[in-house]
Design a protein that fits this description.
- The complex is a heterodimer of chains A (463) and B (510).
- Chain A is of the alpha/beta class.
- Chain A folds into two domains: 5-193, Rossmann fold; 216-462, no CATH class.
- Helices cover 53% and strands 14% of the residues of chain A.
- Chain A has 14 helices and 13 strands.
- In chain A, the strands form four sheets. Chain A has a six-stranded mixed beta sheet, with helices on both faces. In chain A, strands 7-12-9 form a three-stranded antiparallel beta sheet. Chain A has a two-stranded parallel ribbon with strand order 8-13.
- Among the domains of chain B are: 84-169 and 207-323, no CATH class; 373-510, Rossmann fold (3-Layer(aba) Sandwich), CATH 3.40.50.
- Chain B has 19 helices and ten strands.
- Chain B has a five-stranded parallel beta sheet. In chain B, strands 1-2 form a two-stranded parallel sheet.
- In chain B, helix 5 (111-132) runs parallel beside helix 14 (292-323) and helix 9 (170-223) runs antiparallel to helix 14.
- The longest helix of chain B has 54 residues, at 170-223.
- Chain B is rod-shaped, with a radius of gyration of 50 Å.
- Chain B starts with 11 loop residues before the first helix and ends in a 9-residue tail after the last strand.
- The chains are: A alpha/beta (463), B alpha/beta (510).
- At the A-B interface, strand 2, helix 2, helix 8, helix 9 and helix 10 of A face helix 2, helix 4, helix 5, helix 7 and helix 8 of B.
- The structure holds guanosine-5'-diphosphate (GDP) and magnesium ion.
- Magnesium ion (MG) binds at residues 16-17, 37-38 of chain A.
Amino acid sequence: MSRFLFAVVGHVNKGKSSIVSTLAEDDSVAIAREAGTTIECREFPLRIDGRTLFTLIDTPGFEQARHALAWLREHESGAAGRPAAVRRFLEEHAATGRFPEECKLLRPIVDGAGILYVVDGSRPYSPEYETEMEILAWTGQPRMALINRISEADHSESWRAALDQYFSIVREFNAKQAGFEERLKLLRAFRELREDMSAELDEAIAALNRERERRLRESCRAIAAMLADMLSLTLVERAAGDPTESQRENLEKRFLEQLRLRERRCRDEIEDIYQHRRIERQEENLALLDEDLFAESTWLRLGLSRNQLAVSGMISGGLIGGGIDAALSGATFMTGALVGGAIGGVSAWLTADALAHTKIAGISLGGGQLKAGPVKNQQFPWIALDRALLHLNALRNRAHACRDMLNLAASSSDGIVRHWPRPVRQKIQTQINQLQKAHLVSGQFPYIEKMAIDLQNTITELE
Amino acid sequence: MTRTSTSRATDLAALIDFEAIFEQDRALDRQTLRKRDRETGLRIADRGLDRREALLVWLDERRKTPEAAPGQWTTQGLRSATAILFVLGLLSGSAAAAGLLYYDGAHPINIIPWLGVFVALQLLLLLLSALLMLPRFVARRIPGMTMLQRTLAALSPGRWLGLLGRLLPGKQRNALRNVIGRAATLDALYGELRNRLLLTLAQVFGSAFHLAAIVMLLMLAAFTDLAFAWSTTLQIKPERFQGMIETVAAPWFAWAPGAVPSFDVIENTQYYRLQNSAAPSKLSGASAGQWWPFLLMCAVVYGLLPRIALLAVCGLGTRYSTRHAPLDHAGFQRVYERMTEALIDARSPDPEAAGENHPSHQTKQKAPLDNELGPLTIINWCGAGLDAKNLKQLDHPVSLRPVRRVLEAGAPDIAADRATLDAVRNDKQDGALLFAVKSYESPTRDCLNFIAELRKAAGPRRSIILLPVHFENDAFIPPGDAEFSDWETHALETGDPWLRCERVENGGAS
Ligand SMILES: Nc1nc2c(ncn2[C@@H]2O[C@H](COP(=O)(O)OP(=O)(O)O)[C@@H](O)[C@H]2O)c(=O)[nH]1
Ligand SMILES: [Mg+2]
C-alpha cells in the first residue's frame, strides 16, 4: 500500500461515500439515504499498472463526536499532546467498543492520512459540527474541507466561516454532478494539501487525462462498429409461394429487434468502458423510418439463392474442368477450372427461375424469398449515431455517485450531430456511404476505423 | 535467461496465429484483455522493442497453447500438400509423356499433340496465370477482369465450406458460418497472399509435371528407338510447317541450332496415316529420330522454365509479403495499444460491505394520537429550534397542545443533556415529550442513545413523540419522504411502544 492516504470523513449521510465513488469511478459504492450505510472503512487505491499512487479511504461517519471530544479533553496533556491523546483514544476504545465509528474513521488519520472533511452545503451550518472539526484538528493531520451540496439550497457561505477556522483548504465539490474537470481540480487541490506527494498527484492527473482519451477512442470505435453492423444487416424469410403480408410484418419486426439489440450492445459496451456497470437506462426505442425494407427474390429447395446456385454451378463445372486440367498439364489449379466453372455457372443461373416454380412429388423446389435490409434510408444512420452520441456524452459527464436513471429521451435534448460544422458532417457522411456500399463485413473494416477516428477528433475539437 | 534479440520476420504461421488469437479474443471482455496484454507490454517495456517486435513477443506469449497456434499445423499441412502435389505432378507428367510418346513400332509418334500440350496450352495457361497475378487495382481497370475475379472468388474455399455447411445441423452450421464470416474478413486483408500461395502450389505441380515429362522423353530417347512424324488433318505444306517450327524454336534458334529440325527432316517426316503403307520409304529412320531435341526444348522452354520462374517469383513474393506483412490492421493496432497504455484503476479491490439494509417497515396502522397527551414538554435535539410559538404553525394535532416547557439536548456541551434528563426525571407530571430533531440530519448513535436515556428518565409509559422538523428563517419546511422514513425506521427499531415518529406535512398558515 502506498504511504499516501486520504481519509474521507464527516457527519453521517453528508456524501462521503458519494465523493469517494465519484473520485474513484467506482459505482459499487453503496450510497443510501439511510444513515449508517458505510459501516467499515473501504480503501480505494489509485493504481497505475498496479502501482498505487495514493489511496482514498471511505469511512463511516461521526456518530458520537461530542462524547469522543469530551473523552479527549479529559485525557489531554497540553496542546502538543493532542495527537497522542487521539492515539490513546483509539487504543482504549478498540477494547471498550464504545466508539466503533470514531475508532474506524480516526484509525487511518492516525496512520498518516490527509483529511477530507465532507459537509452538506445545502443545509445551514450549525455549531454542533464544531465538535467533529475539533477532533480532526486534534489529530494534527493536514485537512481540507469539501462542501458537497445534496440539495438545491446554498448555505456554503455560512459554512465557510467556520470551516476556515479548522481547515487549510475549503473547496466546493458536488459529488453527483462533478465532471472530469472538477475531479482534476480537486486532485490539484490535494497537491496543495500534501506537497510531499505532488509527483504522485501529477502522475495521476496525467494518467487520468490519457485514460479519458482512451475511453473516448474505444467508445468511438464501438459506435462506428455498431453503425457498420446496422447498415449491413439483412434478414431473409422464405415462403413456399409468394411471401404473405404477415411474413412481411414478422420479418420487419425481427429486423427491428436485431437493430435494437445491436444498439443495446453498443450502449452496454460504452457503459462498460466508462465503468458504469449498474446504470439503469431509459431510452426511446430505435425506430425505422418510413421506407421500403424489402426485396423479393426466389429461393430453391437446395437452399441456394440464384446467385449461390450460379456459384455452385461453377464449382461442379469447375470440378470437371479441374479434372481436365490435372490430366493434361496441371499448369495451374484454377485456369482449367475457370473455363469449366464459367460454363456451369451460367447455365445454372439461367435455369434457377424455372426450378423455383417446379414441384416434384408435391414438394416445391423453390418459392418466394423476402429479404429485409440493408437499410438504405439516408436519415437512419444519422439518427442511430446521434442517439449513440447522446448516450456517450451523458456517460462522459456522469459522476459515479450518480445513481439516477439515465434518461436519454429524445425530447430532453436537441441532438448533437446537427450542431456539427458542415465539413465534419460531410466527412462522416462519406464514411456512412462507404459503410452502406460495402455490405461485406470485410469491406467495412477500414471505414469503421476511419469513422471512429473522425468521431473522436470531432468530439475532442468541439469540446 | 534473457532474449537479446527478437526476430522481426513474420512467417505464414505467425500471420495465421495472429488472426486466430484475435478471433479467440473476441470472446473475452475488454478488461481481461487489457490486463493480459498490458502485462506483456510491461514485461518488455525496458527492452526498447519497436512495434513490430513487440507484437511478435506478444504472439509468442499467446501461442503457448496448441489451440492458439493453428499456424503450425496449417503450414505443416501446406508442406504436405506441396509434397503431394509434387509427386502428383511427377506421376501425371510421366504418364502424359509416356502417353504422348507411345510408340508401337508400327506407327511413328505424331509430334503435334506434344506441341499442343507443351507449347500452345502452356502459352494459354501462362497468359491466364499472368492475369490472375495482376494486383487488384490494375485488374479493376481491365474490362472483364472483375468477372474473372468473381469467378475466382466463387472457387475460394470459403464458398465451398458455405455449401458444405448446408448439410450440417444448425449449431455446427452457425459455427461454420462464423468461421466463414471471419474468412471473408481476412480475405480482404490477406486475399493477395492467399492467391499467391495457391499459385505457388500450382507451380510446384507444374514444375514436377514438366520435369517428369522431360526426364521421360530423355529416357525414351536414350533407351529406345523412337520414330517421330508430323501429321495433321489440315493441309499444311512442309515449307509452312518449317516456318511454324522455326517460330516456335525462336528462343533457342541462335544458341542451340541442333535442336531445330532442318527442312529435310521436316519434309521427310510428314506422315499420312491413310497412306501409311504408301510412302514408307520417305520416312527415313535417321530423320525420324532427329525430332526429340526439338521436343525437349519445347518442354523446357515453354513448360519447365516458365513454371520454375513463376515458382521462384511466387515463392519469393509470398515469403517477402509474409516476412514483411505490415501488421497494421485494426486488430494489431488494438493489441499494441493494450500493450502500451497504462492500466489505471481507482476502484476498491475489496467488495462493498454495505450495512444491512433496513427492511422497509410497512407503516403500521397507527392508533390515533391519544387525546390525553397532556401539556407537552419539548426537547430540541441539536438545536432543532422548535418552540411554543412555531409549534402552532404546524399542521398536526400536537400543535393544539399547550406547551409546558422547552428543553435542549445534543449541544456540544454534554452537561446540558444531563440537566435535561434530570428535568424529565424529576417532572412528576405526565404530559408527552415532544422530541424535535432536524429532519435533514440523520439519526446518529449519539441521538439514539439519548432517546434511550430519555426513556429511562421518563419511565416506561410516558409518550415520546419524535418529530422531525426543519425551520428556516422561521418558516417550516416539511421533511422529504426519505428523510422522514430514516427517522421513522429508527424509531420503530427501538421496539418502544410509547415512542412514535410523527410526520408534519406542512407548516399550515403562518
Ligand atoms: N443530489 C445530491 N445528493 C447527494 C450528493 N451527495 C450525496 N448525496 C445523497 O446523500 C445521501 C448520503 O450520501 P452518502 O454518500 O451515502 O453519504 P455518507 O453517509 O456520508 O457516505 C445519499 O442519498 C446521496 O444520494 C450530491 O452531491 N448531490
Ligand atoms: Mg457512506
